[in-house]
Amino acid sequence: ANCQLKAKTPIHVFAYRTHAHSYGSVISGYRYTPSSSDWGMIAKGNPQWPQAFYPMQKESVVNPGEIMAARCSYNTTGHFQSVKIGPTGGDEMCNLYLMFYTVTQEDDFIICFDEQNPALSFQLPPGNDEPLPRNPALEHK
């Protein structure tokens, strides 16, 4: 998904949460500045780790007119049946939630769920689909 930020003021992202079902391996989110063709990572997480908001090491600012983009990667190795998108545990889904604040109340809820610029999805930075290093403290078997 990618969407141009239609807020009146910058959003200040300070935490994120990724969510997918069984096959999700990595979800990454970026800020893209069209005027400079600059990509900046906002968040990257493993949706198989505990479902929680993780604080960012450094706040990320997304300005009005910039584009927010997310990529979901799945690992279906060894799975030979169709996987459908949907709301149940037997389906698959992808969500990237961002906690942010703004200086105005009118920019308090923003949603992006489609692809406003399909070509941009093919320009994501290298490594966007590489899983994070293992973290045994967060992984359950």
Q: Gist?
A:
This protein is an all-beta fold and 141 residues long. It is built from no helices and 7 strands. It is globular, with a radius of gyration of 16 Å.
From the structure above, extract its key features.
0% helix, 141 residues, 3-stranded antiparallel sheet, mainly beta, 4-stranded antiparallel sheet
Helicity, as a percent range? under 10%
Tally of strands: 7
Number of helices: 0
The general outline is: globular
Low-confidence segments, ≥5 residues, pLDDT <50? none
How would you sum up this structure, described in words?
There is one protein chain. This protein has 141 residues and is an all-beta fold. Helices cover 0% and strands 40% of the residues. It is built from no helices and seven strands. A four-stranded antiparallel sheet has the order 1-6-3-4, with no helix packed on it. A three-stranded antiparallel sheet has the order 5-2-7, with no helix packed on it.
